[in-house]
Design a protein that fits this description.
Elements (H helix, E strand, L loop, with lengths): L5 E4 L6 E9 L3 H8 E3 L12 E7 L4 E11 L10 E8 L1 H13 L3 E2 L4 H8 L5 H11 L4 H11 L2 H25 L9 H30 L1 E7 L5 H9 L17 E7 L2 E7 L9 H16 L2 E7 L6 H9 L5 E6 L9 H8 L4 E3 L8 H12 L13 H22 L4 H9 L1 H9 L5 H8 L7
Parallel strand pairs: 1-7, 8-10, 8-11, 11-12, 12-13
Antiparallel strand pairs: 1-2, 2-6, 3-4, 4-5, 5-6, 9-10
Helix pairs in contact: 1-2, 4-5, 6-7, 6-14, 6-15, 7-13, 13-14, 13-15
The protein binds guanosine-5'-diphosphate and magnesium ion.
């Protein structure tokens, strides 16, 4: 497989300004030379220097497109193999012809992710970095992309290597103690415990970061809630900048819930509009309210709307109290109308939750609202904090943590080295699985099948 020279279109399917076909493998240049002819006959193809020319159909003996060819000699390439990139117009007809002619001239059409797979198999990147490549391509927010970019650079791999090295060092100390039981060579169980616990701490932070990673990838969910007719659907629509939810002057218009994504700066949010939270006798509305309550309780944050053009009622206080344990932003809506609500009193009641006056209908303070939403609900990430974005990674990290905890328990309970060393030793192959140092075909297939062809 690695012996083949592979070819694929690397740009998205469809029409575009530019299209790129890539080749990787030892026949890259000789295959490319059959299809590409330099503009100046006899011009030399220099390493990493784009050369202008025409694409040649060697079957029909005709030129069919203008193109730039760049040759990247191994080993300092994406795949560590010889590579060629041909860029031309982004025309599916041209690009497919190019791949067809290339395949007939001795290359093979690449499988999804095969270029990156080669980078992995040839040892340029590990599996964590390969996953990061795909994460960048499929990033749902800028913030997530920046995390993946760091991991592509090896930040997570380095952290795992450092944990692994500490454990290996520890294992050799324990083993030396077993083999030469004189006092001098023995490491105290207190010191062993300290190293195990420090590894536990690092691994545990990684496991815990998965929730944040998931939120960053899937969006921070914000439930828009409040009584009927306070303007929830109006706010939902104005934040989305489209008329997604039905708005009427009649209470109980929204019965099902609606979910839409918006992005604010580098993060994405999933906004949920739902039925008003009060008692109803209508069975459909009742079900809507029930679901709404559940969604609001599961959301990362709540925008609680009050109608400031009406006097506050005891129902309003009940709602505010109900969400006290959640991150809420209290919004006084309809401030374009004469104010009837005693907002100062309600604000006191809502303390310490932040509040804001808005008009969802007229768009008053909408920009301020977006800023507040961002400040309040986007989690802060420390500069050097690693975020786990994959369930695969999280599951292996949990196994590592389990072994470390078991080791810790055995040490604390006073078991001999021979017993707990076995538990700690388990961590090493697990880290190997995580970084891909230990190759498992089913996992590799699973990871690279999620890639695009041409990457
Ligand atoms: N004057 C005014 N009316 C609003 C505002 N927001 C919503 N409304 C009106 O209030 C009524 C109910 O709005 P809607 O969004 O359906 O409320 P929901 O039941 O909470 O979803 C509609 O007639 C809206 O036009 C606002 O900021 N100012
Ligand atoms: Mg509504």
């Amino acid at each position: 497989m690695l012996e083949d020279t592979i070819i694929a279109i690397s740009t998205p399917i469809g029409h575009g300004g530019l299209g790129i076909v890539r080749l990787s493998g030892k026949r890259s240049l000789s295959v490319a030379k059959r299809i590409f002819k330099p503009l100046k006959s006899g011009a030399k193809i220099l390493p990493r220097r784009p050369l202008l020319g025409n694409l040649y159909n060697y079957e029909q003996k005709e030129y069919f497109e203008e193109a730039l060819l760049t040759h990247f000699p191994k080993p300092h390439t994406y795949t560590r193999e010889d590579m060629v990139e041909i860029s031309c117009h982004g025309s599916p007809v041209i690009l497919e012809q190019l791949v067809r002619l290339g395949s007939k001239a001795g290359a093979r059409h690449a499988d999804p992710g095969e270029f990156t797979l080669r980078a992995y198999l040839r040892g340029r990147i590990d599996i964590l970095q390969a996953e990061a490549v795909n994460d960048i391509i499929h990033a749902t927010s800028y913030k997530q992309a920046t995390i993946s970019f760091k991991q592509l650079g090896g930040s997570l791999s380095k952290q795992m290597t450092s944990i692994r090295n500490k454990i290996i060092h520890l294992l050799s100390q324990i083993e030396a103690g077993i083999e030469f039981p004189e006092e001098r060579l023995r490491t105290s169980s207190q010191r062993i415990l300290k190293t195990v616990e420090s590894a536990m701490y690092s691994v545990n932070s990684l496991v815990e970061s998965y929730n944040l990673g998931k939120t960053l990838a899937e969006g921070i969910t914000l439930a828009i809630t409040g009584k009927a007719n306070v303007g929830k659907s109006t706010l939902f629509n104005s934040l989305l900048k489209k008329n997604r939810a039905i708005v009427t002057p009649h209470p109980g218009t929204t019965r099902d819930y609606l979910r839409e994504k918006i992005s604010l700066k580098d993060s994405i949010f999933t906004l949920i509009d739902m039925a008003g939270l009060e008692t109803s006798t209508h069975p459909v509305e009742k079900e809507g309210i029930k679901r709404g309550k559940k969604i609001a309780s599961q959301a990362d944050g709540v925008l609680l709307l009050l109608d400031a053009s009406r006097k506050e009622t005891s129902e309003d206080s009940v709602l505010i109290k109900k969400f006290k344990n959640k991150k809420i932003l209290l919004l006084f809506n309809k401030i374009d109308l004469p104010l009837k609500m005693n907002t100062e009193r309600v604000k006191k009641l809502a303390q310490p939750n932040p509040t804001l006056e808005i008009s969802a209908l007229k768009g008053t303070n909408l920009r301020k609202l977006k800023e507040k939403i961002y400040k309040l609900f986007v989690p802060t990430i420390e500069q050097d904090e690693e975020i786990i974005l994959h369930l695969r990674q999280k599951l292996i990290l949990e196994e590592i943590l389990d072994s470390l905890i078991e080791g810790q328990n055995l040490i604390k309970e006073g078991y001999p080295e021979e017993i707990y060393v076995e538990e700690i030793r388990k961590v090493i192959p697990l880290i190997g699985q995580l970084t891909g140092e230990i190759r498992a075909d089913d996992i590799i297939n699973d990871i690279f099948n999620r890639f695009c062809v041409g990457k």
